[in-house]
Write a structure and sequence with these properties.
This protein is mainly alpha-helical. It contains nine helices and five strands; from the N terminus they run ααβαββααααββαα. It starts with 5 loop residues before the first helix and ends with a helix.
Length: 224
């Protein structure tokens, strides 16, 4: 019978017994259900990460039992990150939650694929400014950027000749805004041009690795 042994349920959700739960859990729960990926260096301060690290097993049980969601641990060693995923065949049991209602638009996915290629695959790991990323695309990936203009115009339905660099730059900045909400990058409050690539950006690689490997063909064929 459900709740026949409430003490067993309390033990399963032992994180509630932590004296820090009152201050931390509500913020943690909202962040996870909003699609945020939580890692050691972001978001700051690190209380959410430490709480997850300490109580991962009981929190995992809690989300599985009550919400049909999978609290998942990715990465390793210093690059560990946590996020909410769904059980197979389920979209979760939180009808009013913003959880993954924020699907990335195709053009933002494409910006993410390019960032992963430029930053990780092509080893531009010193890159930390959005304008520098844009300039690098124009300078070293000129052919790609020409195709990108056409693809962005096609996606947006703006096939006129006025789809210019400013519109492309605007899409790139909006994409970085989405990446920040997901915790894939960190940005400074007083300098939104500056970003820090986070371990959880690996999630995009996991979901779209074939497209990253064949980015030129992806752009040529507009397959998103």
């Amino acid at each position: 019978m459900e709740n026949e042994h409430p003490e067993d349920q309390l033990n399963a959700y032992a994180f509630f017994l932590d004296r820090k739960a009152k201050d931390v859990f509500a913020r943690l729960d909202y962040a996870l259900k909003s699609g945020m990926h939580i890692q050691r260096e972001y978001p700051r301060p690190g209380a959410l990460y430490r709480f997850l690290e300490t109580h991962f097993a009981s929190l995992k049980q809690y989300y599985a039992d009550l919400f049909e969601m999978l609290l998942t641990k990715g990465g390793d060693e210093w690059n560990v990150y946590y996020y909410i995923d769904f059980q197979e065949g389920s979209r979760g049991n939180v009808p009013n939650s913003p959880q993954y209602r924020m699907y990335l638009k195709p053009e933002y996915i494409l910006v993410g694929l390019l960032l992963f290629k430029v930053y990780k695959l092509d080893a531009n790991i010193e890159l930390n400014k959005i304008p520098d990323f844009i300039n690098l695309l124009y300078q070293e990936y000129e052919e790609v950027m020409g195709k990108l203009h056409l693809l962005f115009a096609k996606i947006s339905g703006d096939t006129g000749s006025d789809f210019n660099d400013l519109k492309v730059n605007d899409i790139i900045y909006k994409a970085f805004g989405e990446f920040e909400l997901l915790g894939w990058i960190a940005r400074e409050e007083d300098d939104k041009d500056y970003f820090v690539y986070q371990p959880s950006f690996e999630r995009l690689r996991q979901m779209y690795y074939p497209q990253i490997e064949g980015i030129d063909g992806l752009l040529k064929n507009s397959e998103l």
